[in-house]
Amino acid sequence: MSDAATRDRAVPNLPSSDLDATEEFYVRLGFTRSFRDDGWMILRRGDVQLEFFPWPGLDPATSASRCTVRVADVDELAAAVVAAGVPVAEAGFPRLHEVRPREWGLRAGHLVDPDGNLLTLIEERPRGVGTDDPVGDAAGEPVGRPGRTLDP
Questions:
Q1: Domains defined along the chain, listed by start
Q2: Can you give the chain as a three-state secondary structure string?
């Protein structure tokens, strides 16, 4: 694999009703600012990178924005979310849906941020255990496909 291929990646671009408020929220979760201007913001937490663009008037109850965050220790990330004051709840903004084993084979939870962005938090399997394929293993069984969309 070439050096360029090892740097290839996809990064979620999520709407923010207020970049200041979004930055404040994610900093409490352990993210730091990598870049910011009037039209774009990049936040990082370890190897996780989220990018935000301004969307004044965004209604969190109607947001359909979502992404998947795969991490080695989903419990650590969920604990940081709770320590930041985000409630474990089924409704409201922000909220955390608890991490638990999912029917598709991995442990996962859901973070809904103040703008209604849904981040599915998935514990990545160590290399050599199961598969890194999010669609299915060698037998075609689902091993990492997030479930349905959550209600606001």
A1: 3-55+65-123 (3.10.180.10)
A2: CCHHHHHCCCCCEEEECCHHHHHHHHHHCCCEEEEEECCEEEEEECCEEEEEEECCCCCCCCCCCEEEEEECCHHHHHHHHHHCCCCECCCCCCEEEEEEECCCCCEEEEEECCCCCEEEEEECCCCCCCCCCCCCCCCCCCCCCCCCCCCC
